[in-house]
């Protein structure tokens, strides 16, 4: 999401009033006036609420959020602040599989998964030849629960009829790594073996990575919604290391603007509210119990949003970026060809996309 100049100016005037210490009545009046400039009038209240919460004014923040009554992000944040009295996130990401298990049932995730698989099946090159005793190797960075990877490989198997397959799974969460391997062992329709690496991919050097792929010829590396947790410079460095061991890097990501924007800026806060509000609204549509839905919201979208808006740029943890910025990153990492494809649209704008880099 990118704000117009007039929208940024309207929100900056609200930020100046907060810095000046105006009372809640005058702040609400300012939000009401400036909201008329915004494409979504409720953003003024949510923007002001986040800045107030960062100052420790929790009750005033909740009052402002309650003015944004139709915004799923604002209402989720209001409940969270009422219970925790802080913008600091409480949930540890992926400590259990529940948030992910709920999210993958959402209508948006199903569209994301379908678009990713279709794009990669059509775009990936044929697998390299491999000796029968040395299986073909695929690397997956952040395999989640293994469902997307399995469905992608089954579609590729139907097209290319490969034999043995060795999967190198890189995942920092023990719970998610266990879930992915169990799912693939029980459900894969092809002969598969595993190397499991519990680590953040950026902490592995090129030599360590090369040792993990000695089983056979590497076909491609998949990173589906899994390497947005590092800023631009680190993305370039990590993609460069992957290029040394894998001929193709397949990325599937969400369109966001959370990397290069400044902390507390109207652009960053409104991008986070819009981006994660879309996810929260979709999670609310899942056929799950209220308790599991709440655990999902607080463990995934709200947790990530709080980390982004509550920290300086180099401590945000999540750095969703735009498609064109990812293309620049991959070319700087040394890839000579990058093919991009939008996989999900919303209101005529791209929401998710794939990139195939060689």
Question: What does this protein structure show overall?
Answer:
This protein is of the alpha/beta class. The protein has two domains: 1-87; 103-256 and 319-357, Vaccinia Virus protein VP39 (Rossmann fold, 3-Layer(aba) Sandwich), CATH 3.40.50.150. The chain has 15 helices and seven strands. Strands 3-2-1-4-5-7-6 form a seven-stranded mixed sheet, with helices on both faces. A hairpin with a 2-residue loop joins β6 (338-346) and β7. α1 (5-20) runs antiparallel to α2 and α4 (58-65) runs antiparallel to α5 (72-84). It is elongated. The protein starts with a helix and ends with a strand. The mean pLDDT is 91.
CATH-derived topology of the largest domain: Rossmann fold
Specify the CATH architecture of the largest domain: 3-Layer(aba) Sandwich
Strand order of the largest sheet: 3-2-1-4-5-7-6
CATH-level-4 superfamily name of the largest domain:
Vaccinia Virus protein VP39
Q: How would you characterize the largest beta sheet?
A: 7 strands, mixed
How would you describe the shape? elongated
Structural class: alpha/beta
- Kindly give the count of domains: 2
Query: What's the mean pLDDT score?
Result: 91
Alpha-carbon distance between the two ends? 29 Å
Query: Helical segment tally?
Result: 15
Helix and strand pattern:
HHHHHHHEHEHEHEHEHHHHEE
CATH class group of the largest domain: Alpha Beta
Short description:
This protein is α/β, with parallel strands linked by helices and 358 residues long.
Quickly list its features.
alpha/beta, 7-stranded mixed beta sheet, 15 helices, 358 residues, Rossmann fold
